Amino acid sequence: MPITKSAKKALRQSRQKRVFNLRCLRQMKTAIKQTEKLIKQGSKKQALETLSQVYKAIDKAAKKGLIKKNAASRKKSRLTKAITKIDIKN
């Protein structure tokens, strides 16, 4: 456990940042999973509608440093590629 006053404050700050970071990561992952689910169902129109939300979540995570810039662009690219491969059913 921290002893000095500044170490106690640093611990409080890191706990708050951890909660914020986990929330941001969770939002990104759920948005990606939701879009992947729509891709598996074959609903291209709905997947395209959720794509902007996924981009927003991924970009926020990259901006905060939770994932790297290239990882963010890789995730966006793979999702877009998967959506374009869907045959239009709905």
Strand percentage, roughly?
A: under 5%
End-to-end CA span: 57 Å
Contiguous uncertain segments of 5+ residues: none
User: Structural class of the secondary structure composition?
Assistant: mainly alpha
* CATH class designation: Mainly Alpha
Strand segment tally: 0
Order of helices and strands: HHH
Kindly provide the radius of gyration, computed on alpha-carbon positions and rounded to a whole number of angstroms.
Answer: 18 Å
**Looking at this structure, what is the CATH superfamily?**
Ribosomal protein S20
Helix content: over 70%
The figure for the number of domains is: 1
Shape: elongated
User: What is the CATH topology classification name?
Assistant: Methane Monooxygenase Hydroxylase, Chain G, domain 1
Structure commentary:
By secondary structure, this protein is mainly alpha-helical. The chain has one domain: Ribosomal protein S20 (Methane Monooxygenase Hydroxylase, Chain G, domain 1). It has three helices and no strands. The longest helix has 37 residues. It is elongated, with a radius of gyration of 18 Å. The chain starts with a helix and ends in a 6-residue tail after the last helix.
